[in-house]
Structure formats: structure tokens, C-alpha cells
Write a structure and sequence with these properties.
This is ABC transporter ATP-binding protein. This protein has about 280 residues and is of the alpha/beta class. The chain has 7 helices and 10 strands. The chain folds into 2 domains: about 160 residues, P-loop containing nucleotide triphosphate hydrolases (Rossmann fold); about 70 residues, no CATH class. It is about 35% helix and about 20% strand. The protein has a 6-stranded mixed sheet, with helices on both faces. Helix 5 links the parallel strand 7 and strand 8. The structure holds adenosine-5'-triphosphate. The site of adenosine-5'-triphosphate has 14 residues, from strand 1, strand 2 and helix 1.
């Protein structure tokens, strides 16, 4: 084969590398502002927040009480519309709720007339998934969340922790693009809360589902999160994005690690300043 001289190669001969599709983060919150108007009085709850949540990351929102954390999650869930700005999931703008977003709230939101199995199965059945496929998926999530032995129980027979397991299993079974969790362990006693954190760590490390998680608990935020968005006092703005430099798999005893303590100190400082700023106004 002859040698191709460099001079023989023209621009039109060069086959460009296929451009890698730019990887858009799954969730983009762009310049979102939210005002509530009640009886003629307008309150700015969220003031121009922009956040990109990378795919397959566990993102956590922390901030002073009333800074708009739940409001932001509700906007992503499509349960409310921003006053301005937009929210994109993939390349679709969010308007209204949809099966691409799974929600787990602090209050228990199971259907009381359905068993554990039927609760987990609900969304799949609604989508018309065949029974055999449904059963396989439901069994998998019942096992993963330690609910297999309780599959025939009704919500009223379960403790708060068990009900939240069902809510998590139900959300995951629907295979949403993102899981939105609003203080899901906020109503649980501290022991149950720890056990739920362990469970969520284990389940999340298996699926790496994109999560947006709201909490007041800084230890919980660091333990679970890859990235923590710290908000200012109301009107909520993004104060700082803190990346958690702690390897996975994680365990609850990591709260004693120097890296954990350093991140905690950083977040507490950010929040302390925020509350002080707020008091001074
Ligand atoms: N439906 C509503 N109508 C009017 N004001 C509202 C409404 N929902 C929330 N607010 C106000 O908006 C602000 C943000 O509320 P939000 O519940 O989102 O904050 P949060 O950070 O989740 O609070 P917390 O940490 O206490 O749960 C608060 O001042 C709240 O009183």
C-alpha cells in the first residue's frame, strides 16, 4: 500500500469523529422563581435558583426552615408551576406530575385499602403491565426493602418506618427517571431513621437512580448525598453547592471520618451565617 502524503489529505477527506452528544443533566432547574400570593399578599419563596442535578447522582437540598426546599421539590414534581424560569427533565419541560418522577413524602401516602403488594404494584398495573412481569418487579422491590414477609399486610398494620419502605419500593418499582424525596424520614424515631438511611444507602447503591432529597438533618445529607445544595434563608437562593468527597459504599459509622466532619463543618458554617444574616435583617 502506498504512503499517503500529508499534502494529499484535504479538509473534505477528513472524517470528523462523531460528536459525543453533550450529556445534559437529567434535571435542570433554570432561573426558577416562585411567588405565593395569599389574600393579596405576595411572598417570594424561591428567588432565581438554577441547579443541574447530574444523572445517577444523589443530590440533597438543605437550608434554613422556610427557605423553599419543599416548594422547589413540588415544582420538580409538577405539583406547582414556577412564577418564572423553567424545569427540564431530560429535554422535556416539566408541566404537571408524571410517572417519570417518583415521590416519597414525609407524611405517609399509601393507599390504606390496598395491601403492601398492591400498593407497590399500583403504578405498574395502571400502566397495563402483564401480571407475570408485575409480580417479578414487585417481588424484587419487596425483597430489597425487607418487606417480603409483610406483602399481605395493610398500611394500618405497619409502623412508620415500614410504611416508608413501601413508599420507597412503590416509587422504585415504577422506574422513574428521578426520585424526589421530601424529608422522608422526618417523622421517624432516630433508630428507625438510621435503619432507613442504611436501607436507602443499600438500595441506592444498587440502582444509582437520580435522587433529589430534602432534609433538615446535615448528617443525613452528607451520609446519603453526592452533592449538597445549601440554600439561603427565604427567599431561597442557592448559597453553595458542596460536593461530598466520601467514597461509596457508605456506612453510618462514617460520621466519625475526618472527611465527613470537614464537610459537616462547612455546611454548618454556611447555615450558621445564613441564620445570622436572617436575624440581622
Ligand atoms: N401554599 C403556600 N401558600 C403561601 N405560602 C406558602 C405556601 N407554601 C409554602 N409557603 C411559604 O413559602 C416559604 C417556603 O416554604 P417551604 O415549605 O417550601 O419551605 P421549607 O424550606 O421546605 O420549610 P421547612 O424546612 O420548614 O419544611 C415559607 O415561607 C412558607 O410559609
Amino acid at each position: 500500500m502506498g504512503v499517503v502524503k500529508a499534502s494529499a489529505v484535504t479538509a473534505s477527506d477528513v472524517v470528523p469523529f462523531p460528536e459525543a452528544a453533550p450529556t445534559q443533566p437529567r434535571l435542570r432547574i433554570e432561573d426558577v422563581r416562585l411567588e405565593y400570593t395569599t389574600r393579596g399578599k405576595t411572598v417570594v419563596a424561591i428567588d432565581n435558583i438554577s441547579i443541574d442535578v447530574p444523572d445517577n447522582e444523589f443530590a440533597v437540598i438543605v437550608g434554613p426552615s422556610g427557605c423553599g426546599k419543599s416548594s422547589l421539590l413540588y415544582l420538580v414534581a409538577g405539583l406547582n408551576e414556577p412564577t418564572s424560569g423553567e424545569i427540564l427533565l431530560g429535554d422535556k419541560e416539566v408541566h404537571g406530575p408524571g410517572p417519570d418522577r417518583g415521590m416519597v413524602f414525609q407524611s405517609y401516602t399509601l393507599f390504606p385499602w390496598l395491601t403492601v403488594r398492591e400498593n407497590v404494584e399500583f403504578g405498574l398495573k395502571r400502566r397495563g403491565m402483564p401480571a407475570a412481569e408485575r409480580e417479578e418487579i414487585v417481588n424484587r422491590y419487596l425483597n430489597e426493602t425487607g418487606l417480603a414477609a409483610f406483602h399481605d399486610a395493610y398500611p394500618k398494620q405497619l409502623s412508620g418506618g415500614m410504611m416508608q419502605r413501601v413508599a420507597i419500593a412503590r416509587a422504585l418499582a415504577n422506574d422513574p427517571k428521578i426520585l424526589l424525596m421530601d424529608e422522608p424520614f422526618g417523622a421517624l424515631d432516630s433508630q428507625t431513621r438510621s435503619s432507613m438511611q442504611r436501607l436507602l444507602l443499600r438500595v441506592w447503591e444498587q440502582h444509582h437512580k437520580t435522587v433529589l432529597f430534602v432534609t433538615h438533618d446535615i448528617d443525613e445529607a452528607i451520609l446519603l448525598g453526592d452533592r449538597i445544595y445549601v440554600m439561603t434563608a427565604r427567599p431561597g437562593r442557592l448559597k453553595e453547592e458542596v460536593v461530598v468527597p466520601i467514597a461509596r459504599p457508605r456506612s453510618l459509622d462514617m460520621v466519625m471520618d475526618p472527611a465527613f466532619i470537614a464537610v459537616k463543618r462547612r455546611i454548618l458554617d454556611l447555615l450558621k451565617n445564613e441564620i445570622k444574616d436572617d436575624d440581622e435583617h
